[in-house]
Amino acid sequence: MMKQQHLKYKHITSFQIIILGFLSVIILGSILLMLPVATRDGKGAVFSDALFTATSAVCVTGLVIHDTATYWSMFGQGVILLLIQIGGMGIVTVAVSVAAFSGRKIGLMQRSTMQEAVCAHHVGGIVRLTKFILKITVCMELIGAALLLPAFIRDFGMMKGIWYALFHSVSAFCNAGFDLIGVKEPFSSLTSYSSQPFFNFTVMALIITGGIGFLTWEDIKNNKLHFRKYRMQSKVILTVTGILIIFSSIRAFRWEKES
Predict the structure, then answer these.
(1) What angle, rounded to 10 degrees, do the helices at 14-33 and 108-118 form?
(2) Are 118 and 129 in contact (CB under 8 A)?
(3) Which residues are within 8 A (CB) of 144 and not within 5 positions of it... i.e. 6 or more apart?
């Protein structure tokens, strides 16, 4: 009996743990979004709507059924923001971060799972990498929120402005696509800020810095401007990202000039 249980335990792979982790977060998020307190009308979302929204938030796709600002309450928006953060960082990264900062010992199974989750090349240094991921995430999102804060305070007041700045900074850094600007016009996204260069560049910077990945940021931190020392993965990511941004910008500029 003991031998069979041991074999079953060993049969669970790191990939399966990651999948089950994401599935658990999505289900829990769906349940929270179904609570009456999660919607502005006090009725709660139906299961299909809650499941779709939770899945979209955790998988950072940005697809929505209801306008985030007008349909969900402050509690519902907070749940969505938490799901975005967990999805953006990765459920395993969050779990290992909590364990590492609480002083708990990280076992080989957790290290192996973390390696699979972030596509690291080696198990060694995983805990250090996890702490680096957490630190750079918090720093980037707080800096982004601080830069977005003046525009949101001007439009929505102090308390709401702080919440909007934090929400959009996290959403942009995690490439989630969720926004709260529907209070101006449902599903309008950030179109009302299209004429504000500083605001747009801040959001774009958050999207790019979050999108290139944490291993690329580790390469930048360790090797600085010595591009030849970067991992092949980081070289490809930075090169392709730069090419796509530059050529797309040139094409958009020409299209706007012709029209």
Answers:
(1) 80
(2) yes
(3) 169, 172, 173, 202, 203, 205, 206
